[in-house]
Amino acid sequence: VQLQASGGGLVQRGGSLKLSCTASGSVFRINYMGWFRQATGKAREGVAHISTSDGRALYANSVKGRFTISVDVAKNTAHLEMNSLKAEDTAVYYCAVGWPSIPLIESEYDYWGSGTQVTVSS
Fold first, then answer.
1. Comparing C-alpha atoms, which of 27, 26, 43, 44 is closest to residue 35?
2. pLDDT tens digits for 76-93?
């Protein structure tokens, strides 16, 4: 499975960005599509993931109510709409797919994209 993420950039505090991640290859392996992020000097953390079978989503507490994950199964594409962005949302965002037994834990996801930078200016 190959993953291509896009949509990162520079935005002011309080602004919005939408990230996209498109999967190709052996997409039958995908059960969940998710987003992680890694800020400079910090560990990678799970942000949100969504089931490709029933659309159920799970969010980290830090982004609940501000971020929305969605999936277009026909296009093998997941989106992460980020609103009310804060400086602490600044990070490299990675998309990941797999069959996680434990949600939003890095080691539970099998395939990773290369990351896209999101910078929130204060």
1. 44
2. 999 999 999 999 999 999
